[in-house]
Sequence to fold (138 residues):
Amino acid sequence: MDAPQAAGSAAAGPKIGCATGDCGACTVRLDGQVVKSCLELVQAADGSEITTIEGMADGDRLSPVQQAFCDRYGFQCGFCLSGMLFAAEDLLEKISSPSNEEVRDAIRGNLCRCTGYQNIVEAIREAAAARVATTSRD
Fold:
């Protein structure tokens, strides 16, 4: 499935990368599940809800994970951003305070050629802390 085409012309986040599911640049949520769109058949997605990184924000307000990536310089060129953000959200839905090892394991299927991963790990840990702090206040 070509995620930008399937999600509509306004979707600039998912990219065509390796076309083999190795890089994560094409990552989207398909009916709530994080998938690499290059591995999905477009016919199978007919009628499905597709969310790209453009759908993570609440209007002009970035999601906590997106904000943490901005604050920690967790991306540079943005090519890997779709996969990293969805991997981070998926991880934080399962583990509220992941270790560095758990974060690195969660992003394993995404290739970043710019940052060296340390800022990405820090951004995800910061987003986790922000989510825990928000939850404890509520």
Observations:
- Residues 57 and 63 are 5 Å apart (CA to CA).
- Strands lie at 27-30, 33-36, 50-51.
- The radius of gyration is 14 Å.
